[in-house]
Specification:
The chain is an alpha+beta fold. It contains 9 helices and 4 strands.
């Protein structure tokens, strides 16, 4: 039986490939692994059946036989370790690719998510106008550091890896901000990732699922 992942029944990203199930879909497409998707409503995410899979009531989850995983980064790492294509064979290169996975989620993503939440939920607050430039500065710092490290290379460390997959999904959260456009090498990096056939298949699947529910 193929693994089963969960996704939003009605995704807040409106089919833009920003929900975290996109990371898992993309990883499975990269390694050529068939999978099934079980949509979950916001109400069902907080009910016991889903909480047994994800203690924080979120998506995605991953079920394969007796194995149940939550947290998109952990799921992508599991897929990458079980199937060829997302981690190098060389031990040192493999370690560096995993380090980039952690960097994407622990170093680059937090200021981006904080900024996104501020724009979505705090823009009507009296202190929002003063806070947003500070959040932008934090994001720019990470983007500048990442851009300097990437340089003219196509990928973060040699061939495309799970590190690039996660980093791309993090950077795409800035699409509507205009901040990524200030760093041409990073914009080109994201475009290269989005051009990958596996990404295109995953994006199309998520968009189709959104359209099926929302007409």
């Amino acid at each position: 039986m193929p693994p089963v992942i969960t996704a939003f029944e009605r995704s807040p990203d409106r089919g833009q490939g920003l929900a975290r199930d996109m990371r898992v879909r993309w990883a499975l497409e990269e390694v050529g692994q068939p999978y099934e998707v079980r949509p979950v409503s916001f109400q069902a995410m907080k009910e016991p059946a889903h909480l047994a899979l994800h203690p924080f009531g979120q998506i995605p989850t991953y079920e394969e036989g007796d194995l149940v995983l939550f947290e998109s980064g952990a799921i992508v790492l599991h897929i990458a370790e079980r199937h060829a294509g997302l981690l190098p064979d060389d031990a040192n290169a493999r370690g560096r690719a995993i380090a980039w996975m952690f960097a994407a989620l622990n170093t680059v993503e937090p200021p981006i998510v904080e900024r996104s939440m501020a724009v979505l939920f705090e823009r009507d607050k009296p202190w929002s106008r003063e806070r947003l430039p500070m959040l932008d500065a934090r994001v720019r710092q990470r983007l500048s550091e990442l851009s300097s490290r990437l340089g003219d290379a196509p990928w973060l460390d040699g061939a495309f890896s799970a590190g690039d997959l996660l980093m791309t999904t993090v950077l795409r959260r800035l699409n509507s901000s205009g901040l990524l456009n200030e760093y041409p090498s990073l914009s080109a990096y994201v475009a290269r990732s989005e051009a990958r056939p596996a990404y295109q298949r995953a994006f199309a699947a998520q968009r189709e699922a959104f359209n099926a529910v929302n007409g």
